[in-house]
Backbone:
């Protein structure tokens, strides 16, 4: 068993939702036990072979592995000289941060799909420097308690890292010789649906509105969404709407009434019921609890 000193050295708790570690066994154990963490592994030396959803992947120096929380990690083995860094992020925290980054990105669906198909990314020299820079910034601010703004600084670092990753993915997708005619009709339809969602940012919440603009029936659009994501069209719409509500509550000073108007809800009463149903608390309670947590 590791001593407390060794554990503190290996695992850096940026907050309750983000853990940076150079102890791969420790984070893989956490990933397997808790089932709600996404995992990023960066290999700096040696080789790591790891099984994800029964498929084998090999990491060499300067390879980055992206593993979502819904994937299953199996056996893994590594060379004696293997060194790596790893980051575990709880799903709700990653969803919040990731949404802030992709809400202006019309290619987010293509990038999400690309990660699933190509979870290992090789870093070029510039990307290697950026990885080291982000790691150093996390190290400097991991225990910074000078003020309540420290948590916001760490969140901005995490957002910047995801923005950079989205740029890398865009470059990788452009280099992939896959064209639209090679994609299935359903995937193309869902991509167009996803772009409409991003453009409206929670202001349109009826499946029929999207179906009419995509020239399909609401039922067919829902079938496509379920095939691609495992959720109905209404479920996908609600997910994005809730993320936008959470962003406006925590990242702006807009009143609840102003947010209701911004998102085109028919009434304040309906908006409050929608928030309570999807967040399990009132808008004021969510704003209060979220801001209290960010100042700890």
Residues:
């Amino acid at each position: 068993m590791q001593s407390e000193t060794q554990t503190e050295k290996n695992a850096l708790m940026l907050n309750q939702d983000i853990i940076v570690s150079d102890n791969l066994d420790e984070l893989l154990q956490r990933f397997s036990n808790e089932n709600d963490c996404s995992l990023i592994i960066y290999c700096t030396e040696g080789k790591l072979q790891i099984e994800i959803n029964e498929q084998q992947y090999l990491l060499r120096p300067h390879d980055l592995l992206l593993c979502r929380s819904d994937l299953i990690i199996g056996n893994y083995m590594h060379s004696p000289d293997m060194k790596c860094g790893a980051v575990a992020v709880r799903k709700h925290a990653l969803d919040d941060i990731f949404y802030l980054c992709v809400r202006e990105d019309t290619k987010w669906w293509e990038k999400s799909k690309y990660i699933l198909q190509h979870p290992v990314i090789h870093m070029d020299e510039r990307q290697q420097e950026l990885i080291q820079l982000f790691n150093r910034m996390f190290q400097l601010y991991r225990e910074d308690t000078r003020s309540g703004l420290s948590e916001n600084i760490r969140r901005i670092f995490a957002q910047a890292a995801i923005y950079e990753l989205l740029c890398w993915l865009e470059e990788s997708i452009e280099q992939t010789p896959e064209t639209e005619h090679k994609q299935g009709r359903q995937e193309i339809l869902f991509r167009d649906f996803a772009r409409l969602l991003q453009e409206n940012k929670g202001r349109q919440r009826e499946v029929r509105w999207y179906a009419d603009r995509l020239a399909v029936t609401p039922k067919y659009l829902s079938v496509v969404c379920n095939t691609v994501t495992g959720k109905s069209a209404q479920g996908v719409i609600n997910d994005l709407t809730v993320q936008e509500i959470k962003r406006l509550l925590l990242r702006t000073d807009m009143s609840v009434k102003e947010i209701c108007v911004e998102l085109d809800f028919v009434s304040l009463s309906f908006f409050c019921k929608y928030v309570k149903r999807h967040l399990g608390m009132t808008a004021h309670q969510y704003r209060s609890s979220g801001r209290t947590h960010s100042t700890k």
User: Anything to note?
Assistant: The chain has two domains: 9-175, 180-294. Confidence is low (pLDDT under 50) at residues 1-14, 292-296. Strands lie at 11-13, 18-21, 37-45, 48-52, 55-59, 63-67, 73-78, 83-90, 120-122.
